[in-house]
Amino acid sequence: MRQRVVMLIVTVLCLSMLAPGAAHAEPARQGTDTPALTGITWQWTHFADGMQAFDVPEPENYLITFMGDDMFHAQADCNVLSGTYTVDDGMITIEPGPSTLIACPPGSLGEDFMRYLGQAAIYSFTEDGDLLLEAPFDSGTLTFTAAPQIQGNVSYRERIALPDDAVVRAQILDITTVDAPTTILGEQVIVTDGAQVPVVFAVPYAASEVDEARRYGAVAQITDGEGRLLFVTSQPTPVITESNPVSGLDLVLVQVSQ
């Protein structure tokens, strides 16, 4: 009799796990077919919890890139932030660090985005390769899609340290016409928080805005916390079109005379 009761309980539990609304994302486990978490710029496209579900307007304004050194860089609408993260068999802990403090316009999801990131506990991937970050107790799931991007390192040759409040800005520019007004195809702003070069970047861009007949270049600069320019690229590095690379870029900056 006891055995039959135990079997009944197990059956009820199994059925409840399969009931509508009770499904949870399977934690990600690295394998040959598992998408990579790191080195990709993810843009936030959707949110759902027990009370609401919505597509994110202007997902290109809500980005996160997990670097291989357990650091992440993110854009939360009009602010940028960095921090650390840890992963363990599909579980993730995100600890936001320093952030700019610009007042975003009404309707911004910037503060919500930063709060959701700090609550994430599980990461997984959909069959389409989207990234899911799930908070515990069904309190919210963020869906991200991978953005096209260029990847590389920013460095310089001078044997001097960056100030703790240094900021790295990497951009993709349209360089088709010399002396034409600057058109920015993509940008990433990294708050270094004491980190030194080389600084890894991953700059997203909209593939729909790429014109194969035009030329694009990667540039970067480093400023201190007050906005004073410290280092800058001497010339753009060609990227994207004309068979130019989008990864493995090495942007070596030169020091700006004060």
Describe this entry's structure for a reader.
It is a single chain. The chain is mostly beta strands and 258 residues long. The chain has helices at residues 2-18, 110-119, and strands spanning 41-48, 53-55, 62-66, 71-76, 79-88, 91-99, 122-125, 131-134, 141-146, 149-156, 167-174, 184-191, 199-204, 216-223, 229-232, 237-239, 249-255. The strands form two sheets. Strands 1, 2, 3, 4, 5, 6, 7, 8 and 9 form a nine-stranded antiparallel sheet that branches. Strands 10, 11, 12, 13, 14, 15, 16 and 17 form an eight-stranded mixed sheet that branches. A hairpin with a 5-residue loop joins strand 14 and strand 15. The longest helix has 17 residues, at 2-18.
Mean pLDDT: 87
**Helix content bin:** 10-25%
Shape: globular
By oligomeric state, this entry counts as single chain
Give the N-terminus to C-terminus distance in angstroms: 86 Å
- Rg on CA atoms, Å: 22 Å
- The ordered H/E elements are HEEEEEEHEEEEEEEEEEE
What are the low-pLDDT stretches, counting only 5+ consecutive residues below 50? 1-32
Give me the count of strands. 17
The chain-level structural class is mainly beta
Strand content: 35-45%
Topology:
Blueprint: H1 2-18, E1 41-48, E2 53-55, E3 62-66, E4 71-76, E5 79-88, E6 91-99, H2 110-119, E7 122-125, E8 131-134, E9 141-146, E10 149-156, E11 167-174, E12 184-191, E13 199-204, E14 216-223, E15 229-232, E16 237-239, E17 249-255
